[in-house]
Structures are given as C-alpha cells and as structure tokens.
Amino acid sequence: MIKFNGEHLLIGQIGYFLTLLAFCSALVAAYANFKAAGTKDMLEERSWQKLARISFLTNVVAVIGLFLTLYLIIYNHYFEYKYAHQHSKRSLDMQYLLSCFWEGQEGSFMLWGFWNAMLGLALIRWSKKWEFPVMTVMSMVQLFLASFLMGIYFFDVRIGTNPFVLMRNEFPDAPIFQDADYLAKYLTDGNGLNILLQNYWMVIHPPILFLGFASSIVPYAFAVAGLWKKDHAGWVRPAMPWALFCAGILGLGIMMGAAWAYESLTFGGYWAWDPVENASMVPWLLLVAGIHTLLIFQSTGYSLKASYLFICLSFLLVLYSTFLTRTGVLGDTSVHSFTGEGSTLYWHLIIMQLFFIFLPLVLYFRDRKNVPVVVKEESMNSREFWMFVGSLLLLISGLYIIVLTSLPFFNKLFGTSWAIGKDVEYVYNRIMILVSIIIGLLTAITQYFKYKDTTRKYIWSKLLIPTIISVVLAALVSIFGGIDYDNYGAGFLAAIHLALWTAIYAVVANASYLIIVLKWKMKAAGSSITHFGFGMMLVGILISSAKKELISENRTGIAVPGLKDAKGRDEDPLENITLIYNIPTPMGKYTVTYLGDSTETKNNKVYFKVKFIKTDTTDNSIAEEFDVTPNAFLMKGEEGTQLSSNPGSRHYLSNDVFVYITSWLNPDNVKDTASFNYKPVNAGDTIYYSNGFVVVDRVLAANKYDNKELPLVDSAWLSELTVYSKEGRKFPATPAYFIKDGGASGKTDTIMEQNLVLTLNKQPSGKVELGIKESNAVMRYITLKAYRFPWINLLWLGTIIMVIGFMISMYFRLKSKLYAV
Q1: Where in 71-174 does DSSP place strands (E)?
Q2: Residue 99's pLDDT is what?
Q3: Which of 332, 344, 473, 519 has the most CB atoms at less than 10 Å from its CB?
Q4: What is the pLDDT of residues 128-138, one digit of tens each?
Q5: Residues 59/118, Cβ–Cβ less than 8 Å
Q6: Is 790's pLDDT higher than 50?
Q7: Mean pLDDT, the chain, as a whole number?
Q8: Angle at Cα 565 formed by Cα 559 and Cα 569, nearest 5°?
Q9: Does residue 499 have a pLDDT over 70?
Q10: Tens of pLDDT along 584-611?
Q11: Of 752 and 725, which is predicted with more confidence?
Q12: Helix (H, G, I), strand (E, B) or coil at 277
C-alpha cells in the first residue's frame, strides 16, 4: 500500500464526522420535536423539548464546523481534496475564496444549511407555542440538506456528494496516484473559480439569495403547524413577519443577481429571462401573493385557503427551482446552472419535493372541513377584493414563467421537443407587460380602499390629485421622453406607455398615501414604502429597457466576423465598432479612443482603457470626457485564445454607459507571416490590393547637394500616395527610401484601418519600387459593443426602497400585539 506524502487527512476526517453528526442530530431533533408536538403530558413534553433543543444545537455546531472545515481546505489550498482542486486556485484573490466555497453543489447546500440553522435558533428563541411543529419541519429540512453531503452508497445508488472526498479516492485508476509524491509533482494547483464568478457581486449575492431561500421554509413551517395543530387562524400572525423578511431578503438577493449579470455578463442588461433567474423569481411572486392573502385573512377572514396555497407553493417552488438548476436539466439552456455534477441529486431532490408536497396535503385533507371559509360575497369596492385579484394575477404570471422555464425538463421527461422560440425575451415580455399594467394600477389604488366596503366618493376624494399628477407626468414622459421602442409593433409600444403610466401612478399614489393619509406614521407605512419602491422599480425597468440605446453602431467600414455574445449567439458586426489603438473614432455622439491595455498574468486577465469624448456642437468644446475600463479573461481552448468579457460602465444619475469587449487583437501575440510585394512605379500609376487600390501621386528624388533640407541623409526617394478602399474611404501615405554613408534604409507607412503596410525600394537600375504588405499583425485593435441605459438607477434605488419597506413592516409587526405567539 502506498503511503502518500503531504496529505492533510485529519481535516477531511473531521469534516466527514461533522457531516454524519449534522445528519444524525437533525434526525433526532426532528423526531424529538415531533414527539413533543404530539404529547399532552407536560413532563413528557419538557423531556422531549430538552432532547430536541440539544439535538438542534448540536446540528448548529456541526453545520458551523462543516462550514469552517471546508473553508479551511479551500483557504489552505489542500488540493488533495476534490472540492478544493475543482473550485479554487492559488492565484485567486482572497475575496474570491468565499466564492469558491459556494460555487459547487456541496458548498451551496452547506450555506443553505448554515442559514437554516441560524433561523432555527431564532425560532427556538421566539416561536413559543409553535416551537415543536415548526422545528419539526425545520429539522427535516436540515436532515435533507445534510444527506446531500453524505456521499454514501445505498446498494448502487449514491446518496449525496461528499465535499471531503480525496482526489485519489475519486479517481483511483489515474496513473499519478501511483506516485507517493503526487501532490508535490502533479497537483500543485487547482482548476480555479469559474471566471464569470470572479466578481465582487458573487461574494455577497449568493449568501443573501440563500438566506432568502432558507427563510422561505419558515412561513411554510407555520402553515404546516397550523394544519397539524388544527389552529387555522393562529399560525397567520407569527408567520407574517417571517414572510415579510423572506420577501425582502429574497427580492434583494434576486436583484443582486441582476446587478451581477449587469456587470459580468455580456448580453447587454440585467435580466434575460434566463431559467435560473426565472426559477428564483417565481417563489418570490408567490410569496408576495401569500403576504397579501394573509393580510386579507387577518382583516376580514377571507382567503385562508389561498394563503395556505401561496405560502406552501412559495417554498415548494424554491425546492423545484433547486431541482431545475442543480440536476442538469437546464444545462443546455442557462448560462449559470449546474450540469453533470448535479445528476446524482435527481431522485434525491424529487424525494425531498414529494415529502414537502404531501406533508401539507395530507394534513389539509385530514381537516379540510374545519378550515374557516367566509361565504359572504366580497364587495368590488373593498380592499380585499383588489388585493386578491392582484394575488391571483401574481399566481398566474408565476405559473406562466415556471411552465415555460420547465420546458427543457418536460422535453427530457416526455421525449417532446417543445421550444419557446428564438426571441425568448419577447415571449415573456409580451405577457409580463400586461401583468405590469394591472399590477402597477392595483399597487396605486388598492391602499385607498378600506376593508369590506368603501364609498366611491371617499376613493375619488383621495385618488383624484394623485391620478391627475401621474397622468400629467406620464404624458410628459411619453411625449418628450423619446420612448419609441417599435421592435414589436405599435401595440407593444402602446402597452409600454400604458405600463409606464401605471408605474408612475404607483409611485405618486403611494407617496401621496404616505404623506397625506398616513402623515408619515412609520408604524403603518411599511406597505406604502414597499409599493413606492416597487413602482419605482417598474419605472426603471420600463424606461431603461424601452430606451436602451445601442451607441456602438459601426460606420468605420471595419467589421470583425465571427463575434459571439455571452449566450453563444452571433453578434451583428454592424453593432460592434472596431477601435484601432490610439486612433480617435466617431461613435454616435461620442468620439472614442482605444488608449491601451494591460495584462494581469496571475489571472490571465486583460484590462482595457477606452476614452469617451462628447463635443458641444455649438462651439466644438468638450462637453463630456470620461474613461471606461472593461476587462476580459483570456481562455485557451481548441480554437485558440478566447475572451470572456466583463463589461465596464460609466454611471450617471440619469443613465449608464455600458461597454464590453467582443474581440481583441494585440500584435504582440500575432506572428507576422506576410511579406512585401514589390512593383516598379512612376507618378500616376495605380497598384491594386485586396480591399482597394493605391494611386501614386508623386515620386521625388533628392540628394544633400541639391536639397539642403536633407541634412541627415545623402540621398532620398520620396513618394506621395493615396489609398482608396472599396468602402469609398481614402488615406494618404508617404513611404520613402534613404541612403546614408553607403547604407540603405526605408520608411514604411501603415494604414491600420486597411491592414496595409507601404514602403519604397530602389533597384540598382534606378527604378523605384513600391512595396505593399497586407497583414493583420500591423494593427492593435479592439472591437466593442456599447449601450446607454437611461434612468436605470431608478431600478436599483427602487429595489433598496422596496426592501426597506418590507423590513419596516416586519419590524413593527414584531413589536406589535399582532405578533402574539
């Protein structure tokens, strides 16, 4: 048996022990809480409670230990472990080592388990009478999450993936593992982090998103507890603050992902209806719908069944989105889903979904006759009626999105070939623009209605001024805002303008409600602030998308073929402008100059510097000047070195200039194999090259005796040429030939725009020859694509305000008697 040198086995053994401990303690905690929830004997209940709490605290310690153990393996570059070798690299900056942690399946599940453990501690502290049923559900989630990390075999089926497996155990037949010094000789470095994840957003976005995912279990657990204990009204109040917390955090996590996409992906925006984006948004939509039906039930007694449905579906859709993104079923359709490594989770995740689907279903049908239902018809002039309409619309839109997102899975499941089509964005946008119109309108007016019934006189007395203001503002934006997005016809453009009005209406009406009706009373202001932020988000989305302006229209005549975007689609060469090093080039309202680049050899990363200058047409003075610094990773593949670009942006209050590199040619990396083709010439001659022709305007001969302007050479032959391209452009050139002290030298002239090098030569016979060389190596250029996003900051600001509104609502509900648990 080979004794391997340099391995750090103890830390992996500790990690695997902690995995088993986390699994066993979660199992005991689930059983003990289950028993405590089912007994009526106080002494027996306390005994089970003690065991349940000790077991869950043990689980918390084990999960934290797991987190620290895996991070230490990554931090210390223990590449004998498969997880460290796959996801980390010595050259990575410190901040990205955390990203390595949750890049893989096991680390992300561990992160989920960590947040679940923290939430469980909070529930033990504050859930009081609901502790046992709620913690039974929480412990079951921990049990499943721990099982994903076990990596044990049940007959021929592997259960979970062990993050502490050694490379030599995973690939035992590899020849390198026959060498005791394989670590020092072969595994000196890891594969590294996916270059798309090497962005600061990916350090903070996943933890926030997974906190949102983890917190979705809490309102679900309260709903299950209500069904279990047959207390169908009692669970609503303690569940509400958790639902608000989850909606705020999950919404923030989703928009952080949008910000990452905006800064790291080159599809030119922050949202592309990618399946992973959709799968995270749909649970949020259902949760928001559930919050509104919970409010309806608390105020009127209506919509309890709908509340059960929405709250349970929000968590179940988190599980379903996990299934879609981690089992490989979306691997061919998403830019950032897991692929083959998630195939072992396929049935594992299906079992988890089925368990949490049937749990509330069984409990509901056991006691469905006792679920309170208000038979009285709701008034259309009531707040609850329009809140329910909005919730129903969110459900429909969520189902529409998730069904289309699931088509690749359905195709694999049923052997079908359903497809959305090439224009994916429009398939979603054509429906969601209609949804946004109705949601914007409901967000504006619903708060002005009272529960149960409201007189029309009261409604119009409060809504008249906000309505007039919003109509005027929307009209001004429509008339003078230059929103003329007609890619999909006049009907879609009209829908955009109508949606923009309802979004502005939501902002104005909620601001008015906060100021005039609530008079800035923060205790009741959470919903108005949330709706105000949501309306601002809609305004930002509509304007930045409808007025997104391509500013890199190519009028230079230099087109680089074969360009691809982040999704592998062909780029239009006419939408990508080529900039030759240090040559100012007109681009729309700007003159842009490629100032250079620098390479960071540690990470194979290139930083580009591009200057933008905008000139005032009245006096030709510089009205605006700034630099944009996009960057790109160099990836070596079968087709040579490819670029993976990260956009650069110039941020203004009213707009962003968004730039990314689509190709780069550095002459230092290109071998020049072309040679000069010489032809005798005289004044008036024409010489052809592949993209045009050269006219010899003048050829002059001079020597230092006849021409005192040649003090540095003995003789010179000078030329004046004009190069005409096929595109109708012309370029002057002045190559020359010199003799000094018996030695000859030439002066070349380079037309970079035409990949053309010109020189003169003199034959012994006295004839002058013009040398022409065409070579890609003469140029140093980049090709870039640039957009302008007007008022995109309204989207980011609206997100922050919306999240603040959710947190205010949660805070005051925790403080008030409404949170009586």
Answers
A1: 152-154, 157-159
A2: 87
A3: 344
A4: 889 999 999 99
A5: no
A6: yes
A7: 87
A8: 95
A9: yes
A10: 888 888 899 999 888 776 677 888 999 9
A11: 725
A12: helix
Spatial separation of the C-alpha atoms in residues 261 and 259, rounded to whole Å: 5
Q: What is the DSSP letter of 372?
A: -
Q: Categorize the per-residue pLDDT at 341 as very low, low, confident or very high, splitting at 50, 70 and 90.
A: very low
Instruction: Identify whether the C-beta of residue 610 lies closer than 8 Å to the C-beta of residue 630.
Output: yes
Give the 3-state secondary structure of 318-331.
HHHHHHHHHCCCCC
Cα–Cα nearest to 534, from 255, 217, 813: 255
Nearest of 66, 56, 64 to residue 26 by alpha carbon:
56
Q: At what angle do helices 94-103 and 105-126 cross, to 10 degrees?
A: 90
pLDDT at 821 over 80: no
DSSP letters along 6-57, please? Answer: S--HHHHHHHHHHHHHHHHHHHHHHHHHHHHHH---HHHHHHHHHHHHHHHH
Q: What is the largest CA-CA distance in the chain?
A: 121
Q: Which long-range contacts (CB under 8 A, 24 or more apart) does 599-605 make?
A: 599/634, 602/91, 603/91, 603/92, 603/198, 603/633, 604/633, 604/634, 604/635, 605/631, 605/632, 605/633, 605/634
CA-based torsion, 131, 133, 134, 140: positive or negative: positive
- How would DSSP label each residue in 583-652? --EEETTEEEEEEEEEEETTTTEEEEEEEEEEE-TTT--EEEEEEE--EEEEEEETTEEEEEEE-EEEE-
Q: How distant, in Å, are the alpha carbons of 148, 247, 512 from that of 326? A: 12, 23, 45
Cβ-contact 66, 107 below 8 angstroms: no
Give the pair of three-digit tokens for residue 6.
């340099």
d(CA 605, CA 321): 33
Q: How far is the C-alpha of 668 from the C-alpha of 598, rounded, in Å?
A: 12
User: Would you say residue 8 has pLDDT above 80?
Assistant: yes
> How far from 295 is each of 298, 312, 783, CA to CA, in Å?
5, 16, 54
Identify whether the C-beta of residue 391 lies closer than 8 Å to the C-beta of residue 268: no
Residue 15 has pLDDT above 80, yes or no: yes
Using the predicted structure, report yes or no on whether residue 112 has a pLDDT greater than 70.
yes
> Residue written as tokens 């060498």?
179
Average pLDDT over residues 351-369: 94
Asked whether the predicted pLDDT for residue 668 surpasses 60, the reply is no
Confidence of residue 346 (pLDDT cuts 50, 70, 90): confident
Half-sphere exposure of 225 (CA within 13 A, CB side): 30
* Residues 748 and 757: beta-carbon distance below 8 Å: yes
Please identify which residue in the block is written with the tokens 């002459």: 667
Give CA–CA dist 780/667, Å, rounded: 6
In angstroms, rounded to a whole number, what is the distance separating the alpha carbons of residues 624 and 614? 5
Place of tokens 């903070």: 204
Residue 704 in this model has a pLDDT that exceeds 70: no
pLDDT confidence of residue 602: 67
Check residue 562 and give its pLDDT: 63
**Tokens read off for 107:** 């680390």
